[in-house]
Every structure is written in C-alpha cells, then in structure tokens.
Design brief:
By secondary structure, the chain is mainly beta. Helix 2 (851-861) packs antiparallel against helix 3 (884-894).
Length: 914
C-alpha cells in the first residue's frame, strides 16, 4: 500500500516548507519504483487440379536477415498463400488438438513434417524432419506416432515433439510410403518400402518390438515393386493384405494368412496398374489405385474372400478413376470416404452402392489422403496437393482450408495490375494440380480463380488490367494455351489449340501498349507436334492465332518476348534457350515487321547462351537487358543492347542468371535472380555491378519468377517454391495513421532501475510501442529513420531497435529506449515524418524519476528553481495549469498508483531535427 496518497491535498499549504520536509521524510520510508498498471505481464506429365477456396492469409513474421544481407537494409516478407503438397494428415487418438501433416513436394523429396497443437488452426514445422518428405502418419491407441518418410520410419512418444529414426537395416534406399500398426498388437509395426527404381527388393518390412528391429517379409513378386498400402483383418490380425504400385506402371495385391510368413497373389480381377491404398472394414477388403500418367486407371474394388475375387464399386459415372486414399467411419462401416485425383472427395453411406461425388465442395481438389479423427464421425481431414490441409467438422458438409503456417506452395509466376499495385496474381503448380490465386489487397487475402484444373506457368495483366494465364496442360482436362479472366470473374480459353492432344507448351506472353488486339505468345511445340521453339501471334485479342515462327531445332523454348516501345509495334525481341543435344545455342530472335517473321539476332552473345528473360529500360526503348542462364566459369550473366537487339554486350556481370527486371522508376536499377544464394541481387549502375538484395529470403525455396508491382509504393514480387514474397523497391509508402499520435506528451520516463525496482519506460518502449499504419506492406526497418535534438542525459542517443509488420500494413516499432525527455524526437519514412516531445515525470530533468522530483516541483511552485523543460514539465496532470494537484499526481506516479500513460496530442512547433 502506498504511504503517500492524494488525500493530502486538503492539507497542502503552498509555500509551506515544513510540509515538504515531512513529505520527504515519508518518501524515505518507502522504495519508490515506477510501475505500469497497464502491463499485465517441376513440371509433370500428369493432369493438374485446383481447389476452390478463399485463403485468409496472416503475414509470416520474418526476423532479421538470412545472413546474406540486403542492399538498403530492406527485408522481403512472405505473402503466401499458405499451402503445399500434403501427402497425409492424422489426429492423435489421445489429444484431438495434436495433428500431424506430412509434406512431400510433388510426391517426392524435399518435404517436412508439420505439427499443430490447436487442432489444425496453426501449423509449425518440425525441424528434426526438415528436408525429409513424409508420406504416411500413424498413431497407436496410446498415442505413439510412426511416420513413413523419404528416410525410413521415425517414431515419437511425446505427441510429435521429438523423433527417433528407426533403422530398417536395408541400406540407404529406405523410402517408406506406408506404415501400418496391428490393431491388436501395438508393438507390431509394418512398413511399405519404395522400390528405388528397381534397386530395393525389400519392399515389406515387419517389426515385432515397436520398430527396434525389422525383418523382411516381402512377397515373392519376381522383382521390386513399391508397397503403397498395408492393412489387417481386425478380426484376425494374422491376415495381412499389401497393395503395390510402380512409379511408372504395374501393380498388384498380395494376401498372407500367417502374418507374412507366406503370401498369395490376389491381383487377378483388378487392373495391372499402380495400387495406392488398401483397408479392411471388418467384413471385406477395399482396394484403390490409379495413376494419371498414362491414364493408368483403377478406381475402387472390394473383396469379401480375402482377394480371391473382386467387385468394382465404381462405374462409368465416376469422374475420376484415380483414387489415392480410403477411410471408413469407425462408428459406421457403411460410411466410406475416398480421396480422388482432381475430383475431390467421394462419399457413400450405404457401403458403396451409391456415391456422392465432389462432396463438401471439394470437386476440384487433388487429394492425397482422407482421415477421420479417431472416434469422431464429424471431423474429417484432407491432405491435398498444393492447398495443404482442409478440415471438416460437419461430417463433410464443408471443408475449409486449415493450412495457416504451411508455407510451401510452389508458385511459378507472379504479376501485378499495371494501375493498381495492390491487385496481384500468382500461378502455382503441384504434383497433379495447378491454378491461379489473385489478391486485391497486396496479398492480405487470396482468392482461387475458377479456372479449369490444369497446371499454369505464367500470369500477366494486359495494359488495360485484364488478367491472363497460360495453361501448361494436360489437354485431357482442358485445352492448353491462353486463358482470359472476364469482367464477371469467369474465364475463357483462347488457344492456340493445335489438336486434342497436348501439343503446345507456352511460357511467354506480351501485349501491345498501342493495339489491344495484338497478343504475342512464345514457347515450343510438344509431343505429336514436335519439339521446336514457337511464337504465336493474334491481332484479334486471341480469337484466332497464327504460328509465326517455328524453329529448326528440337528442345528449344522461347522464354520471353518484348515489344520495342517506340509506338509502332514493329520491332520485337524474343529470348530462347536450348537444353537439347549439343551444341546448345540459345540466344535472341528479332522481328522488324510486327512479329510476322523472325530471325536470329544474337551478335555479341556467346554461342552457348541460355537466354531466359528480357527487360526494357523505362527511358530508352532501344535499351534492353538479357538474363543468360548458362553455367560454367565466366559464362552466363547480364547482357545489354542499345540498338533494339541488333547487337549485344556484357554489362560485366557473369554467372548463371535466371531472371532480370528493370525498375520502371529508375533506369539505372536492375534486379536479377540466381539459382543459388543470394537469390536476388540489385544493380544501381545498369548491371555493371550487383549487390545482394535477399534479406528475409531464407525461407524462400527455389526461385521461379521475379516481377515488378509499380505504383505509389513500388514493390518487387518473387515467386518461389515456398510461396510468394514481396519487398519495396525503395521506401515509398505513406503514413496512414500512427499511435501514439504526432506531438504526443508522455509522463512516463526512465527512472533509476535499482535492484528492487521495475523499469517502466515511456513512448517507444515495450510498454508503449509506436504503431504505424502504412499505405503499403513490406516496408522494412531500414526504411525508417530517427533523429532527436538532444540525447538522453543518462541513456544516451536513441535509435530504432526493431520494426515488426503484423498484420500486413501495420508496423510496431520499439526504440532502444523511450523518447528522451525534453527533446524533439522525429521518426521519418521517406518524405513523411512524425515528431514527438516527451514531457517527463522527472520534473528536475536529471533523467531519473524519484523523490527528488517531488522536491523540485515544490521548489518550482515556490519559484525557487526554473522549469527545466518549460511549463509542461510541471503540469503533470495535463490540466493546463500548474497547481498543487500536479505534486499529488507526481507522488501517485512514483508510487504506481495511477497509469503513467498521459497523452495530450496538442500540435507542437516544428522541431529542429535536420
């Protein structure tokens, strides 16, 4: 309890020094400490499919640099969308909040394990499994977890917090697709092992001691074949069933009646195609399979006689006969869910007699797994390609996305609206899916566009703001080629379409600035059409197309097209790469007749140039830069032309360069990307020298694309294998609002931090951070600056300690210490600034708040000493006048009886910061 209170005000006699001495004596009896009462402590030949969902993204907070540094101190921030290729997801039987999800990019290597402790609301990576793809997750009834990974089987006994790798004893080829636990003996663990392209013959392994030791129990198949599924008869767990599927074809199913001692081939009656899953419902076996590659269809089968005969549960009405996973409601064996490739969830409630397709709005999802939460008929989790985890709590009525924290979406292209830098679009690809996300608020929220479920490799806005996307097939789902978003949000396929098969691979598109009907596309033919590089031209906005160039060599690709912006649309350049047979000779093509004819224009380029990208100077239409992705000492780099592509010269920079972007606001500035660190570099001398520009990109995966978002707050956009990232190209942003406001006065200031006292700071500290709302997202701490007219007498000069953006556009700033008392402190962002003046509770101006300040107030009130910081240093209660109540407020502040946050916000004179 405070020994000094405001009740003394009735007895205060101004000028009475006896009362002052009595006050000081009382203050000497207590330890005066300030306290804040407010402080309460790669390309696939399989079809692609997309999900239809709105992703509400929370910006990932990035702490500091990735070690490479960045020019101008600017940090990249992740924009999302969240997602990734989740092969399996499972809920702990002992704690419904514990959920594990296995990431396997494109069904292959480079994944990890994600864990959630809040039922899937947020996910965190399990660092022990970083870089190790996870294909299957199983729990024992007691909660012990086993996972099948690219590197064998791992076990956790503490809800996934720590993991132990279990040695299968089969060498380095120990990729495990399936883990199965005997329902009647939790110590009996089985593992389905990949065939490693024929080099791993031990495809079924069994452990009788919880994974400590293993025995090979592979059926006599005549050759290695990956084991994709294992199940037991729950009534007799000696009966074991195993499903097999090859990476490129072939499959089957085997049955053992004696726990793997001997096997019988039960493949008769089902297609000789890859099998993916097998389960037992207590009365019969269910078998699924299929692979999109090569139309190796299977569907769903059942057997009531241990596989001796099979009955198809699918028919010609099924939208997909590629079924990746099966799960059965533990409370009702008639309720079965299956996960399809490209058509979402199928459900039956009568054991398979009738089915509902595209269940719960999942019709365009490419699913890898479907799981009931243990014992719960209403909670169902899906592992999907690209979009990650989806979860239903209403028995499949809806499946909202549940992927926050899974930043593993393979984004291959990014673009921004030419007149609205907040309007973004990205293209993504997964193992068997792809799509386009768009955002109208700089990536805070993303919307999945209603496009056909194929792969998309390029997005671009036309000069009038229309969004276009290039589909990379397969044509069995929808024709490859150019798609346009219409005014009502629907999409129209524009071609060019050379036939019913997959004949065109298109990567580049360019629109005329002068003629809305002129569109140029570049890429190559494919399959039955050949493999030559191609350029397509339309003069009617895509209604019809002419192939204006078909190169003489196979396995070359046109990678980019630029129109020389001299107003005529007559001169065009196209970069092309060549990764076919030797000699490899990429370069540049040039047209001088509006794109009707093309010829090589690679003078000055090395013979083995791999031209990946072009960009044009914003001030000189004849100056363009080229990214050369050739490898080898002294090869690759950046080249420049000053005569519209007639001749080329090196800028002096070498090394494999994947992308080049010209800053439209500064003709001296270029940005390039690398295949290795630093991922992004910047040049301020037209490419002669480059500096790292990748701070914050430690979590970015492989670089896919670099684009510019021009506008009031120009930004760079980076598409990577782990999502989309953004960074301000400069520090151009406006201050929308700030809290505390400009001119804020604060009574709290640093005090003597004695051993028994709690440090309480004022504006700029953890107790009272400064919060900015800006017009743009992605501004780094390096964009802010601070100056003050006088350093703090005790703590010295101030500086910005940290700036954290969360949520997007909101920046919380902490200073090294609170704003210095009596000095103007100005925080600037570009040309804008906010000025603060802290009027302290340490009335005598010595930088320490203690009993001496009460004495100083009394002396000032009696005109014995002057005001050290003007009248504000005495008007403690901000009443507008200096009165005895200010001394009482000072006493209460020192005793922690009232909050120290006192804001006035009255505009102050201009400060004297430079």
């Amino acid at each position: 309890m405070s020994l000094v209170s405001s009740e003394w005000s009735a007895h205060w006699i101004p000028g009475d020094r006896i009362m002052c001495l009595f006050l000081i004596a009382l203050l000497a009896l207590v330890s005066v400490c300030l306290a804040d009462p407010q402080d309460s402590g790669l390309r696939m030949d399989e079809q692609g499919h997309q999900a239809r969902a709105t992703v509400r993204h929370v910006l990932l907070e990035l702490a500091g640099s990735d070690g490479e540094g960045s020019a101008n101190g600017v940090d990249w921030v992740a924009l999302g969308p969240f997602g990734g290729d989740i092969d399996d997801v499972a809920v702990s039987p002992t704690d419904p909040n514990i959920v594990l999800a296995g990431l396997a990019p494109a069904g292959a290597s480079g994944g990890t394990l994600f864990a959630s402790i809040d039922g899937g609301a947020f996910w965190s990576e399990v660092m022990a499994l970083s870089g190790i793809s996870v294909f299957d997750i199983e729990f024992t009834p007691a909660g012990t977890a086993y996972i099948g990974t690219m590197d064998g089987v791992w076990r956790s006994t503490d809800d996934g917090s720590t993991w132990t790798q279990l040695d299968l004893g089969i060498g380095v080829n120990d990729q495990v697709f399936e883990v199965a636990i005997n329902p009647n003996n939790s110590s009996e663990i089985w593992a389905g092992v990949a065939d490693a392209l024929g080099s791993q013959p031990n495809n079924v392994m069994r452990s009788m001691d919880g994974g400590e030791t293993w025995q090979n129990v592979t059926p006599p198949m005549g050759g290695p074949l990956s084991c994709q599924g294992i199940t037991f008869d729950p009534n007799d767990s000696n009966k074991v069933y195993a499903a097999f599927g090859g990476g490129f074809g072939g499959g089957g199913v085997w049955f053992s009646a004696n726990a793997g001692t001997s096997w019988v081939n039960r493949s008769a009656g089902v297609p000789n195609n890859p099998m993916t899953d097998i389960v037992h419902d207590g009365a019969r076996v269910l078998l699924s399979g299929g692979k999109l590659f090569g139309s190796q269809f299977v569907g769903l089968y059942s057997s009531a006689d241990d596989g001796a005969t099979w009955t198809a549960l699918h028919d010609e009405s099924w939208p997909s006969l590629v079924i990746h996973d099966i799960d059965i409601d533990s409370n009702d064996a008639h309720v079965i869910y299956v996960a399809s490739a490209g058509s979402g969830v199928f459900r039956t409630t009568d054991g398979g007699d009738t089915w509902v397709f595209f269940f719960g709005g999942t019709g365009s999802l490419s699913l890898n797994s479907v799981r009931f939460a243990p014992g719960d008929s209403h909670r169902i989790l899906l592992g999907a390609s690209s979009v990650g985890v989806l979860q239903s709590t209403d028995a499949g009525g809806s499946f909202p996305q549940s992927s926050v924290g899974i930043g593993a979406l393979n984004v291959v292209s990014a673009a921004a609206h030419p007149n609205d830098e907040a309007h973004l679009a990205i293209a993504f690809q997964g193992l068997n899916d792809g799509g386009v996300f768009s955002s109208i608020n700089s990536g805070k929220n993303w919307f999945l566009e209603p496009l056909p479920p194929t792969r998309y490799n390029t997005v671009l806005f036309s000069p009038d703001g229309t969004l276009y996307a290039l589909s990379d097939g397969p044509s069995t789902i929808a024709p490859e080629g150019l798609y346009r978003r219409n005014g009502d949000g629907t999409w129209t396929g524009l071609g060019p379409d050379q036939g019913a098969q997959f004949e065109s691979r298109l990567f580049a598109m360019r629109f005329s600035q002068n003629d809305e009907g002129l569109i140029m596309l570049g890429g190559s033919d494919f399959g039955v059409a050949g493999f030559e590089p191609t350029i397509w031209r339309s003069t009617d906005a895509g209604a019809s197309w002419t192939k204006v160039h078909e190169g003489p060599k196979d396995f070359e690709d046109v990678t980019d097209i630029e129109i020389i912006e001299d107003g005529s649309d007559m001169t065009m350049l196209a970069s092309y790469s060549d990764f076919g047979t030797n000699p490899q000779d990429g370069g540049v093509l040039r047209s001088s007749d509006g794109g009707l004819s093309w010829s090589d224009s690679s003078t000055g380029l090395a013979a083995q140039t791999q031209a990946f990208d072009l960009c044009a100077s914003p001030t000189d239409p004849n100056m363009l830069f080229l990214a050369d992705g050739d490898v080898g000492p002294g090869l690759g780099g950046v080249f420049v032309t000053t005569d519209a592509g007639l001749t080329w010269a090196s800028t002096g920079t070498t090394g494999r360069t994947l992308d080049v972007v010209c800053d439209p606001t500064d003709d001296q500035v270029l940005y390039i990307t690398n295949a290795s660190d630093p991922k992004v570099l910047v040049s301020s001398d037209q490419g002669q020298t480059f500096a790292p520009f990748d701070s914050g990109l430690a979590i970015a995966g492989q670089v896919r694309d670099l684009a510019f978002a021009d506008g009031a707050a120009p930004r760079l956009l980076l598409a990577s294998s782990t999502g989309t990232f953004a960074v301000l190209s400069g520090c151009a942003a406006s201050i929308v609002s700030v809290d505390p406001p400009s001119g804020t006065e604060d009574a709290r200031q640093p005090h003597d931090p004695g051993p028994d006292c709690l440090v309480a700071l004022g504006i700029g500290s953890e107790d009272e951070p400064i919060v900015f709302e800006l017009s743009a997202s992605g501004v780094s701490a390096g964009c802010f600056s601070l100056c003050e007219t006088e350093p703090h007498p005790v703590l010295g000069a101030n500086s910005i300690e940290s700036v954290v953006e969360d949520p997007p556009g909101t920046y919380t700033m902490l200073l090294d210490h609170a704003i210095a008392p009596g000095a103007w402190t100005t925080i600037s962002l570009g040309a804008e600034s906010i000025a603060y003046l802290a009027m302290p509770a340490n009335a005598n101006g010595d930088g320490i708040s203690n009993a001496n300040d009460v004495l100083a107030l009394i002396d000032m009130f009696n005109n014995i000493v002057p005001f050290p910081f003007g009248p504000y240093s005495t008007d403690i209660d901000r009443s507008g006048v200096f009165a005895p109540a200010d001394i009482l407020r000072e006493i209460d502040l020192l005793n922690g009886a009232i909050p120290y946050r006192v804001w006035n916000g009255v505009p102050k004179p201009q400060n004297t910061c430079p």
